[in-house]
Amino acid sequence: MIAKLIKGKGFRGAVEYDLQPGKSVLLETNMAGSTPQAFAAEFGAIRTMRPRLSKAVCHTSLSIHPDERLTDDQWREAAHAWMKGMGFVNNQYIISRHTDAPHPHIHILVNRVTLDGQVVSDAHDYKRQEPIMRDLERHFGLRMVPPSREVGRAAPTKGEIEHSLRTGEASARMRLQKAVDTALGKGCPMDIFRDRLALVGVEVHLNTASTGFVSGISFALNGVAFKGSKLGKGYTWNALQQRGLCHEQDRGRAGQEHGNGAWIGWREMGREHQDATGAGIGRGRHAPGQACSFEQAGALSSQEHGRSNFAYADVDKRYQGHGRERENVRIRGQEISR
Questions:
Q1: Is 96 helix (H, G, I), strand (E, B) or coil?
Q2: Do residues 139 and 70 touch, judged by C-beta distance below 8 A?
Q3: What is the spatial distance between Cα 190 and Cα 98, in angstroms, rounded to a whole number?
């Protein structure tokens, strides 16, 4: 279950959105009104008790997977669990279920000003929702959604949520997050990662120094670009590598760390192995300009991992030999000094 919360200034527009004729069902309210205009007037009457509060509107949606279902009674129970967990125990509210989207969801519209004139705190409200969602998932036997701090994905902004609610479409940043997750999977080489993203119109740009060292990554979709860090902590260059994205600079550094510290770059290893076997390392085998399918990409990845293991084994043998030679020289030097 996913909760998306926004705070606003006006009740009228939120009520009209939640109670659209033919697209929503009013599940429950503790107010006397029956039309958007009447509800807005009631909300406004309580709001006047805190005239300096700029954002009295709390509007959230609770949604589940398209394959899952909850009864209206269960939706009411979920709504009350959310309100209680967020501190809304003496507030005006409207609970409505929408029927115009493939994923089942409800909207909860609450006045942050309580009936006795207090204000419900909104401190860390986005984070406070997550344990409530996990409890509801267990209670109703729903699919467990990883908390945002675990997946490293930045939460949608207020504008993105409003855009999604208004148009039914995800924002560019949300689409990029999903595309990157799908393309990376459990890990793949950089060239395959690029190919997969290109299939869905996403461009990848690396911040590369003259030495070839990569310090950052960004993504662009339909002319809208985001640095990896703007997508979330899990989308930075270092985080993507930890999640399984393989790149040449890492393999080159691995060669440097063996034995005597001499730099043996991945490209050089690839050329040496190509001379011996007639096969390159770390590059896809599809024609120029031809998109590589996910299935083809997986096959290429398997081939590349096999070749890279062979190359590393060869380098290890080489360095073991250098190590033994240096040890013999050291022993001979000690004998001479005696």
A1: strand
A2: no
A3: 42
Using pLDDT thresholds of 50, 70 and 90, give the confidence band for residue 321: low
The amino acid occupying position 160 is E
Residue 149 has pLDDT above 60, yes or no: no
What are the structure tokens assigned to 65, written together?
């997977």
DSSP 188-255: EEHHHHHHHHHHTTEEEEEEE-TTS-EEEEEEEETTEEEEHHHH-GGGSHHHHHHTTEE-HHHHHHHH
DSSP state of 123: T
Sign of CA dihedral 141, 156, 73, 118: positive
Full-model pTM? 0.51
pLDDT digits (tens, 9 = 90+) for 251-290: 444 344 333 333 333 333 344 444 444 444 334 344 333 3
User: From its phi and psi, is residue 259 left (phi > 0), alpha (psi between -120 and 50) or beta?
Assistant: left
CB 281 within 8 A of CB 273: yes
- How far apart (Å, rounded) are the C-alpha atoms in residues 93 and 85? 15
Q: Which residues of 295-314 are buried (b: 16+ CB within 10 A; e: fewer)?
A: ebbeebbeebeebbeebeee
The mean predicted confidence, pLDDT, of the chain is 78
Residue located via tokens 């290890």: 316
Count other Cβ atoms within 10 Å, centred on residue 30.
11
Q: Which of 273, 295, 275 is nearest to 284 (CA)?
A: 295
Q: Which residues of 283-293 are buried (b: 16+ CB within 10 A; e: fewer)?
A: ebeeeeeeebe
Looking at residue 320, what is its pLDDT? 52
Name residue, tokens 């393309």: 183
AA identity, residue 82: W
Of 58, 56, 37, the C-alpha closest to 48 is 56
Pair of tokens at residue 57: 């509107």
Single out the residue of 200, 201, 312, 293 nearest to residue 246, CA to CA. 312
More confident residue, 61 or 152: 61
